[in-house]
Amino acid sequence: MPVPDCRPVAFPFDTRVHSEVFERLAWLRENEPVTRVVIASGHEVWLVTRYEDVRQVLRDRRFGVTANTASDAPRLFTTPFPPGVSLLRDTEPPDHARLRRLVMPEFRARQVERSLSLIQKITDGLLDAMAGTGPPADLVADFARPLPMAVICAWLGVPVEESDRILALSDTMNGKGPLERITGAQREMCDYLETLMDSRRRRPGDDLFSALVAAHDEQGALSDAELTGMGVSLLFAGHTVVTTALTSALRTLLHRPADLARLRHDPASVERAVEELLRYHLVLRDGQIRVATEDVDIAGVTVRAGESVVVSLNSANHDTDVFSDPEVLDLGRDPNPHVAFGHGIHRCLASHLARAELRIGLTSLLARFPGLRPAAAEVSADWKDHQRLQALAALPVSW
């Protein structure tokens, strides 16, 4: 599908029609694997679309992230985060290595395994509530939205009564509302996390934020800015992204009854299915951004020092050089080396937790409601007005 002649085009592309996005990305991979686009902040940047080139940018130390923190830097969202908040995604070695060393023990697969009972308990509680109310139900409002928020709040030690407030702040921060509303929500979120931090210093608990407050090595503890940034990052990745991935998966499966039945009758197959659903779907509409610290050649194009590059994880996950029939959803696909969680040193810290929530959520929902089906014929999807995510506003079902 040819890209329009007027250059550069706006990115991300209009994602309301799933197939058109991937047709456009496929054309770019074949014809212009490194091309100029305009992103949300209004800057022109390079867009990289091929799998191997995406991985090269994400692992190449000549592409950095710290330049992204400048107030006038190219960025994928319209509103920069307030100063004084240090996000893990915006740190470079050796600081990045220090931060990951301090927090990584809390996110290893073995640690997540210890939390499976917590995820299952929260999942069962939500399903009990759905069953008690009876059909119809909205899988976004009643299940996919509260599940990851309850899990990440329990992990962080955020009181359950605060979850609605955190959800509302998160929605405002990620939406496309007026600038003052977004920055106000950012500040309120940071203030809340700073209060939580002070509380855990005085009265440590058995939760992740207490562990992070207490974490230290030979180079010292996490700073207040780093702790606040870690909380913000976890609430975004641990809630918003998981909700979007889960609703996308459920919407697709509800329109594929044979696959739905197969997963219900063979719960062991859900693990592989989750990986394919992560590969297949648009979750983040854009990708990840880096800045060249020196001249670098990518696919025959020279990216000059100081120029920004956006890598499309969605395009990489549909590259025919890596995935056979990438536009086919194959729930048994193996191997499946997708990059939905990124690649390199900034790969998603909470990927094990996200996978566990998706696996338990899908398995439990299908087991509890064998007759799960769309509540009505879907005319068109109702998408949320989100800056970066392809997020459903509602998913009505019956059983």
Strand content: 5-15%
How are the strands of the biggest sheet laid out side by side? 1-2-3-11-8-4
Sequence of secondary-structure elements: EHEEHEHHHEHHHHHEEHHHEEEEHHEE
Mean pLDDT over the residues: 91
User: How far do the termini sit from each other?
Assistant: 40 Å
Secondary structure category: alpha+beta
DSSP summary, beta strand count: 13
Number of helices: 15
Helix content: 40-55%
In CATH terms, the superfamily is Cytochrome P450
- CATH architectural name: Orthogonal Bundle
Number of domains: 1
Largest sheet descriptor: 6 strands, mixed
Q: What gross morphology would you assign?
A: globular
Low-pLDDT windows of residues:
none
Radius of gyration: 21 Å
Structural write-up:
The chain is an alpha+beta fold. It has a single domain (9-398), classed as Cytochrome p450 (Orthogonal Bundle), CATH 1.10.630.10. The protein contains 15 helices and 13 strands. It has helices at 18-31, 51-59, 95-103, 109-113, 116-133, 139-144, 146-156, 163-174, 179-202, 208-214, 224-254, 257-265, 270-280, 313-316, 351-368; strands spanning 9-10, 34-38, 44-48, 63-64, 137-138, 216-217, 220-221, 288-292, 296-298, 301-303, 308-311, 373-374, 396-398. The strands form 4 sheets. It has a 6-stranded mixed sheet, with helices on one face. A 3-stranded antiparallel sheet has the order 5-13-12. Strands 6-7 form a two-stranded antiparallel ribbon. Helix 5 (116-133) runs parallel beside helix 15 (351-368) and helix 9 (179-202) packs across helix 11 (224-254). The longest helix has 31 residues, at 224-254. The radius of gyration is 21 Å and the shape is globular. The model has no long low-confidence stretch (mean pLDDT 91).
